[in-house]
Amino acid sequence: MNRQASWGWPMRRHAATREGARTTVPADHLLLAMQAGAAASSGAFGAAALHAVVADAGAHSRAAAAASAPAVSSDPAPADLLLPSPRGQAWRTLLRNPSAVVGLLILATFVGLALAAGWLYPGDPLDMVAEPLVWPGQDAALLLGTDSLGRDVMAGVVHGARVSLAVGAAAALISLSIGVSVGAVGGYFGGWVDDVLVRLTELVQTIPTFLLVIVIVAIGQPSVKVIVAAIGLASWPVIARLVRAEFRTLRESEFVLAARAQGFSDAWIIFREILPNALPPVVVTTSVLVATAILQESALSFLGMGDPNAVSWGSMIGEGREMLRTAWYLTAVPGVAIILAVLSLNLLGDGLNDAFNPRLRG
Fold first, then answer.
1. Which of 58, 95, 175, 206 has the smallest count of CB within 10 Å of its CB?
2. pTM here?
């Protein structure tokens, strides 16, 4: 008996700890195995009985393992455990920025006035509606008074918002189209193509932007379309250099190499793979381009090179400068509109930079 006990203990210990103690064998299963071995050695049972005992022990083991296995839930993961996308996180960061929200509200106000200009003040804003030089507050129907020709100043500000914002947005769109194309092609292909486009960009940058705009407008007839084209053609180098730097950084990334390995064309890689990842700094710069275009259009109108058939904030300032001492509001009102519009775009641009810049977002 003592010899069986000393022999049985190491066997139970080995069975219970085999495979690195990852499998625990119950004691009753070991007892069944020992009984089967004793029966086989004494001949009391045949081979069939031995197999039956072993099969019963295996069934008990599988049943115990199934009972002790943790239940796996087939329910999908709750939505609140999913991580937010980087783009959604950036927009939430933007909306939590007080300065960006203020700029967005001011800009939305001007856009709303521009869209509703025909409904708020129907007719031509250049028409005379009252006697000249009615000061703001003297007539309830004329909130901001009249100018030297009896034209409604408020109607001019509202319709001028339509012209100024349209010029800024259209000129920025032209600059984006040229700058993104030049920067993307040069930054992606490199080599002599990049050298030629860089020299072209530097050549345009050597000419002062506003001087180039004046030359183009002087060659063509002063109109809104010519002013938009002139500002757009003179402002694209900033976007081109920015996009080129982004493409030179991203063209050797792993996702670009994977797209090349899969056989995608260069146009597909440029516009579908790299360009979406290079857009955040471009979006930030676009807000500055719109503000700069508004200022340039106002400066042209102030110098008398604006469209004579369209009312803009710059033309209102140019017409009111002669009466700056006697009727200062003719210059101050459109000047404040320009300041607020440019300020809103700058605040929005700073907020976009804080939201989409991964270095600042942390």
1. 206
2. 0.72
